[in-house]
Amino acid sequence: MNPIAPFFHNAPSGIFINSKALRKPLTPAEKVLWQLLRNRKVKGFKFRRQHPIAHYIADFYCHEALLVIELDGAIHERKDVKIKDKLKQDYLESTGITVLRFKNEELFEDINPVLQKIQAYLQRK
What we know:
Mean pLDDT: 88
CATH architecture: 3-Layer(aba) Sandwich
Distance between the termini: 26 Å
Structural class: alpha+beta
CATH superfamily: VSR Endonuclease
Shape: globular
Number of helices: 6
Number of domains: 1
Number of strands: 4
Oligomer: single chain
């Protein structure tokens, strides 16, 4: 068995190329959250950004806690994007990964409740 397969859930090579490209141009919301998550700043858990999992790319992923954090901007209000988000979340949850989803506005208005939800989930791990 491939030792990295569980970590990436057999992501195809094209997904790795796309995820690497997405790491450079962070959205303002991703930039804010990444500064708070990186370098094990939240309860000592390691997060990766734009992490490939099967045919999907997670905004932020913590393998130790099997946690994905997704940030939703205005485009996520579109019906077609909502359908794709639901398929992605259903797949991730079917593999045992928990998905926490936040709107960008939540980060900008008051980041404390967002951090509290993340910390509360990690505390149970």
